[in-house]
Amino acid sequence: MLNIEIAKLLRKKGSLECIQKSETLENKISEVINLNLRNLRLDERDIVDLMNVIEKANDNISIKSISFSYNQRIGDVGATLMANKLPYSISQIGLVDCGIGDKGGTEILNWMRKSDNLQMICMEQNNFSDKLKMEFNIFKMENSNVMVVY
Prior knowledge:
Order of helices and strands: HHEHEHEHEHE
CATH architecture: Alpha-Beta Horseshoe
Structural class: alpha/beta
Strand content: 5-15%
Number of domains: 1
CATH topology: Leucine-rich repeat, LRR (right-handed beta-alpha superhelix)
Helix content: 40-55%
Number of strands: 5
């Protein structure tokens, strides 16, 4: 089950926050549909492992929402990995204050353009240029059914 595999990864990381989150995930009876991985001090290496687990489980589960918010060390590399492996079943994403710049933000924007299910994405407190913010604004105007917060 996806929640057990993610719990194993978080236990391996070993921080108090990750161990507490792993216990919460292990106690879930059903598969994870809403995955909250906020404020766990995750970095790009953790994102590699998590995306591999999520990619393997993608055929067996539909993740509705996922939040990586307040993991400032995700950065452009982590955001790019996410954009290449996030399932298109996701309707809500949290990437607030994840240390993402234009490179990672552009990859996330490209993922957004391919998603038919996206309803909301929150990405404020990242390091986006005015040019990229304009691109997000264009997406927002062309996709009025998607709430985009940057």
